[in-house]
Amino acid sequence: MKNTFSREHLLFLKAQRRRKILVHVAQFGVLILLLGLWELAAQLEWIDSFITSSPLRIWNTLKELIASGSIWHHMGVSTLETLAGFAIGTTLGYIVAVILWWNTFLKDVFEPYVVVLNSLPKIALGPIIIIWAGTGKASIITMAVLISVVITTITILNGFLATDKEKVLLLRSMRANRLQIFCKLVAPANVPTLMATLKINVGMAWIGSIMGEYLVSKEGLGYLLVYGSQVFRLDLVMTCTIVLCALAGLMYAAVAILEKVVVRKF
Q1: For the residues 77-91, what does the mean pLDDT come to?
Q2: Which of 21, 122, 180, 211 is the most exposed place for a label (fewest CB within 10 A)?
Q3: How far is CA 162 from CA 111, 152, 185, in A?
Q4: What is the pLDDT of residues 141-168, one digit of tens each?
Q5: Which long-range contacts (CB under 8 A, 24 or more apart) does 44-52 make?
Q6: 17-31 tens-digit pLDDT
Q7: How far does the chain reach from its first CA to its final CA, in angstroms?
Q8: pLDDT at 13
Q9: What pLDDT band is residue 266 in, cutting at 50, 70 and 90?
């Protein structure tokens, strides 16, 4: 019976690995198919490649940027701004969520304001941020922080409030104080929530940094996007967009790896 179970388990694991490989192959195949159709449409002039660009033109533009070395500088600037906004926004949001969970009076008072801030288009605050933080990297990082901090606060706070009430009551019946309840139950129970928030903040931080670069920067991928649109270099715009997708994907993959490591410990 034990050998039969082991054999079935091994067959199941083999099937799971086979399915994962097939999924990756299918994903790669879909990408190649879409790129091929895009290039074919451009070559046959079904679409205007000046407006839509094409994979070949994007590749040539990318080679030019790599040869000149400028792409590495702009990528580095945008990545550092995004990472700073990501780290600061997530940390501040988590701290605010802890404070609001800790003090229910403050939660009841400030929760409507947090919801309003979340619905406010952050680009509307751009001129104010420029006046307050200047026209340098500080205003760009501030924009990224503003976008990610509110999302973090709302998501983490909802996770805290959704913690099993019976377990909280059990700890209280054992005379656990607020700090002990948080450290022993609430925080560990919401590690998956924190990891999910980090994944969301990857996109939010990139949006914030690129929006900030649109407004004030003279370097970075956001600046290249604006410059390319102003001089009608759509190849440059599409190339920067694809580079942004690749960087965001790598950052998301890093968070996903961190999630596997952290969640396994909890």
Answers
A1: 93
A2: 21
A3: 16, 15, 12
A4: 888 898 889 899 999 999 999 988 888 8
A5: 50/234, 51/234, 52/234
A6: 888 899 989 989 999
A7: 33
A8: 80
A9: low
Residue 258 to residues 93, 115, 192, Cα–Cα distance (Å):
19, 29, 11
Amino acid 102 reads W
pLDDT of amino acid 134: 75
All residues at 6 or more sequence positions from 94 whose CB lies less than 8 Å from its CB, including other chains: 152, 156, 194
Residue whose tokens read 């994903």 = 27
Q: What is the pTM of this model?
A: 0.85
Contact present, 202 and 255 (Cβ < 8 Å):
yes
- The dihedral through the CA atoms of 154, 80, 203, 21 has a sign that is negative
Q: For position 1, what pLDDT does the model report?
A: 43
Among 197, 227, 228, 202, smallest CA distance to 79 is for 202
Contact 73, 65 (CB under 8 A): no
Above 50 in pLDDT, residue 241?
yes
DSSP assignment of the chain, as one string? -HHHHHHHHHHHHHHHHHHHHHHHHHHHHHHHHHHHHHHHHHHTTSS-HHHH--HHHHHHHHHHHHHHTHHHHHHHHHHHHHHHHHHHHHHHHHHHHHHHHH-HHHHHHHHHHHHHHHHS-GGGGHHHHHHHH-SSHHHHHHHHHHHHHHHHHHHHHHHHHTS-HHHHHHHHHTT--HHHHIIIIIHHHTHHHHHHHHHHHHHHHHHHHHHHHHHT-SSSHHHHHHHHHHTT-HHHHHHHHHHHHHHHHHHHHHHHHHHHHHHHH-
**Phi, then psi, of 162 in degrees rounded to 5:** -90, 0
